[in-house]
Amino acid sequence: MSWTDERVELLKKMWSEGQSASQIAKELGGVTRNAVIGKVHRLGLSNRSGGGAPQQATPAAAAPAAPPKPEAPKAKPSAPVTPAAATPKREAPAEARPAAEPAAPAAPAMSAARRAIIPAGQPLPPQPSANEISPEALAKVSEIEKKAKRLTLMELTERTCKWPVGDPATEDFWFCGLPVQQGKPYCEAHVGVAFQPMSSRRDRKR
DNA sequence: CCCTGATTCGC
DNA sequence: GCGAATCAGG
């Protein structure tokens, strides 16, 4: 693979968006994160500042080269607003057993998809959910989504949060990807809304 | 251990 | 110019 114009463009775009070198490498394909970092430096844009600097820059970095930033702060269209913050709460699986957890990501993702067939982008509140997740947990989730790695299904590993965000039927769909909590399939924030203690349903008339 | 970016240096 | 190896850090 070589650094074609298109690839460089994507690199620039992603880098200024705050994506990590490894994520960019995955997206580009055919290159390692080292290659990406190397290119970033050769392009002289190690200074990420194009609208927002959310990452965690290395404090000890005396970069002598700090050329002007030609990249204009292109408005990031990605939907920061996600109904998913409230969406998945409905299917929050109240699992009490810390054992076996099959295809965790598929479950919530799919169920969200089938219902999304109706309205896309509108809150889908029907469905009398019989559980209330602490507002704190939900707030935490919407916040965490800003820092999410936004991985694709293929990029998920055993230690990346598999919480789905967005509508699987659209481009705006990804998995959290943040570091999972010990043994769980989700990150801390998502574990909070995914695993509910058995409650609010003392009457399990069946 | 997982991850991050920074730098070096043979190619 | 490129990027693996390495370094330094969280």
Spell out the blueprint of helices and strands.
Blueprint: H1 5-16, H2 21-28, H3 33-42, H4 106-116, H5 135-147, E1 164-166, E2 173-175, H6 188-194
Antiparallel strand pairs: 1-2
The protein binds a DNA duplex (11 and 10 nucleotides) through residues 2-3, 20-22, 31-42, 46, 55-61, 63, 159, 179.
Briefly characterize the structure.
The protein has 6 helices and 2 strands; from the N terminus they run H-H-H-H-H-E-E-H. With 206 residues, the protein is mainly α. Among the domains are: 5-43; 135-204, no CATH class.
Description:
The chain is mainly alpha-helical. Among the domains are: 5-43; 135-204, no CATH class. It is built from six helices and two strands. Strand 1 (164-166) and strand 2 form a beta hairpin. The structure holds a DNA duplex (11 and 10 nucleotides).
Task: Output the keywords.
206 residues, mainly alpha, 2 strands, elongated
Distance between the termini: 59 Å
Order of strands in the sheet with most strands: 1-2
Total of DSSP H or I helical runs spanning 4+ residues = 6
Globally, the shape reads elongated
| Poorly predicted parts | 52-107, 109-116, 124-128
Q: Which structural category fits the helices and strands? A: mainly alpha
How large is the share of residues in beta strands?
A: under 5%
Q: What would the average pLDDT be, to the nearest integer?
A: 68
Q: Biggest sheet, in brief?
A: 2 strands, antiparallel
Order of helices and strands: HHHHHEEH
How many distinct beta strands? Answer: 2
Percentage of residues in helical conformation = 25-40%
Gyration radius, in Å = 20 Å
Region (Disordered): 44-111
Protein name: GcrA cell cycle regulator
Pfam family, one: GcrA
Biased composition (Low complexity): 54-64, 75-87, 95-111
